[in-house]
User: Fold these one by one.
Assistant:
Number 1:
Amino acid sequence: MMVAGVCSVKPARGVAVRVDSGGDGTYIPCMSLAYLLLDLDKTVYPASSTLGREIDDRMTGFVARKLGVSEERAHEMRELNFPRFGSTIRWLMEEHGLEDPESFLQPTHPEDVAPFLAPDPRVRAAIESIPLPRSILTNAIVEHAERVLAFYGIRDLFERVFDLRFNVYRGKPDPAAYRRVLEAIGRSPEEVLFVDDYPVYLEPFRAMGGKVLLVSPEGASDLPRIGSILELPAWLERSSLVRA
Ligand SMILES: [Mg+2]
């Protein structure tokens, strides 16, 4: 594969080219792609893995203890406030006086990720086959990202890991987080494909002119989608964003 410098179909100004992205009729602007930004949790590893559930349960437990409510109620409150704040940590900081974000971040990310993940050499093969420079953009902490990347043996495939500290504890979906990362990698949004498992994290980047792709077993939005990271190389080829 090579990175496409121009589209195979030259569009009129402002016209998008229709591509086959799994039959969902997605339109993607025909421009060259120069960089890949990948989310970490439930994007690099599958949503079905127990790591995502473990982090989620730990966050719910933290909220239950902090607010003195049942875990069931804590879970409901997290779900309820997610659309408004975009993350549990923002909600706790803005509405419940959480002053030390590290006191939330450290214990909610397990120090040993191996019990929650299954080795899969296809993850490295898939990411390595994509002929673009890449970085991770996560709302977790860099230590957690490093553990997951080390588990899959893929740390060397990424230039940078942009974590929540890099984004001064105000990460996705705040547009400022995307702008900070774009500045750090020296790219315009149009040159970047951002891949994440949360539609609400993709939409602000798309609104900035960036290319986005949802990783999810279920298609519940109008966003272009793949079922797992293993499908990314084939999706890129089909989309004409990179050419064989
Ligand atoms: Mg994620």
Number 2:
Amino acid sequence: MHILLLADDPRERQLLEKTLIDEGLACQMTHASSKKEFQAALEQTQFDLIISDFTLPANSGIAALTASKKLQPDTPFIFVSGASGEKQVVESLKSGATDYIFKDDLHRLGPAARRALLKAKERKERQRMEEQLRVQSSALEAAANGIILTDKTGKILFANKAFCAMTGQDLEEILSQTTRFIESDKCEADFSRKLWKTILTGQVWQGECINRRKDGTLYNEEMTITPLQESNGEISYFIAVKQDITKRKRLEEQIYYITKCKRLEEQLHQAQQMEVMSQFAGSLAHDFNNLLAVIHDNTKLVLTDESKLSEQNRQHLEQVIIAAENAANFIRQLLAFGRKQALQFQPSDLNQVISNFTPRLDRLIGAQITLQYHYARDLPPINADPGMIEQILVNLIVNAREAMPQGGQIFIATESISLDAAYVETHFEARPGEFVCLTVSDTGTGIYPEYLPRIFEPFFTTKEAGKGAGLGLAIVYGIVKQHHGWVVASSQLGKGAAFKIFLPVHASNVAKILIPQTKKTPAHEHEKNTVGG
Ligand SMILES: Nc1ncnc2c1ncn2[C@@H]1O[C@H](COP(=O)(O)OP(=O)(O)OP(=O)(O)O)[C@@H](O)[C@H]1O
Ligand SMILES: [Mg+2]
């Protein structure tokens, strides 16, 4: 504690210092013996306590009190005086002295100093808290976010300017009201119930909702509600910090819309390209097939009369036959892509088609690959050519196998799907209705995103020359199209690829299964058929 003492007699300093130390008050004392020294000390140092003689030859005690109140108003000031007189005491206390001690009662100085210091400390603390409250409340008031404080029934106790501006409400009108006036019917049905359940259990609630301004217009709001707990753990108040995010929402909607349009445009472009290619491949293959038939059939005719042929010429003509057959095989694939092959449609149970074909599929995969089947229950029939569905399965399984040289898993799944307008909006080729979906997925290398839009093109291959013709998926595409369906490929590089084929449910509700019953209808849900590894 630092004390400033004003006294003309230096012995007083020792006396007072001793008195205070005896009282257990450790102090450092600055002694001023004149008005000038006192003034200078007040200007230089902040003191915890000022003690002054009342009667001074060259300085009046009251003048010293006035000077110290001016320069250090919060520092307690105690007069110590030899002279006694009620008038002096009253005058000094009226002028702001904290206490007045007679030298005869010097034992009172310690307790008086202690009391004065305590009071000064309390006053300082009160001022600090008042200041803190003032800053906090002006910060809440000036915050850019809307802030309201409610009691635990939701009645508004405080609302800042930003909240009033956001909602268009007048403060006087909304105080003591619940926040029901901003609620709209645009939020989820149990929005309010969930919110109250969260905050009444002491948890912070964060979320978005659509509210109503005073003028009836709607706005998007993002808010955080924090329950305020009393020291006994009871929740008495909630503070809600709110932000109008209408602009951000509009922007997000616009971005979503533009992205969707762009994606649809790309899908349309791809579909148009595929259509042109498919028509071109179809008519080319058709004409070429006729030419091949002429070459093949006439060569066969010449070969029937072997007597007229030399051995060497017979061998040459047999080569022609082999080449013509290979070419015909190739052309058959192009015809499949060009949707020019004759199909034999019949109401078919996709589960049954797959299960009849599993022995062949099992032979296609290597020992390190596991093939799992997941058949949906009560799958409606589709109008399909079972032989073509088998062709799709072969092409997809071979691709999956080739994407997993180190082994892996292939999943074949069926499901019944009902597509709504929302799905159709984001998938160009899709249309609403009832479909059966066949999924073939694997855990292989996956497909580069830049390749994904091209994989169904005929002759697109990433395989080395002689290993792949790039026709497998083009055939899948053609067959699916001929079945009035569509195929969607997706992939995560390094994680695998998935092909989803959507086929329309058969229109009639007559025959469900016309596939020869070589096997029992497969058991359902999660049936596993593991081959090899
Ligand atoms: N499951 C898959 N995982 C990774 N990449 C695949 C998968 N399926 C297809 N691809 C990619 O798509 C390309 C085209 O496949 P597509 O079946 O049409 O032709 P291909 O397999 O290369 O040749 P082909 O089938 O005529 O022998 C493949 O080269 C490969 O890059
Ligand atoms: Mg292939």
Number 3:
Amino acid sequence: MRLTTIAEHPESVQRIDQQTLFHIDFEWWDLREDEYRTYLYNLLCDKHQEEFGYVDDRKHKLFDWVNPQTGEVFSIDSIEYAVRSHCSSQEGYITEGTAMVDSVFRALLANGNQPLTIKQLASCIGRVGQESTILRMLRGSKVYKGLRPL
Ligand SMILES: [Zn+2]
């Protein structure tokens, strides 16, 4: 067997720049389902955390979620639904103290995972001027919270 190098497959090297759109890759999360549910649970507001109670309840219901921009309908579970429709608009959902990677995830989730550029992300998470830091985080070889270029 022979190792192939990146140079032999230039098409596999993705160009990432200011125009690149980023989104949450839910396929990445599919492999980490338990982790995802715990992570999502932590995005709930106090009221909803109480309502959903035990995080490991697998009998969650599916809801239809209509993307307001495209009209596309998705099935999402009840926790995700609560985050998008309520908790994400509560104060404290994204704060200055929220880790950058979490802020990016929260912003994307709240907007129905509409892919955004680095510039748009920076503005969504209140970090205008820190675009290069966000870009560095998102284009690294490690994938954080399923955040990937489109
Ligand atoms: Zn809530």
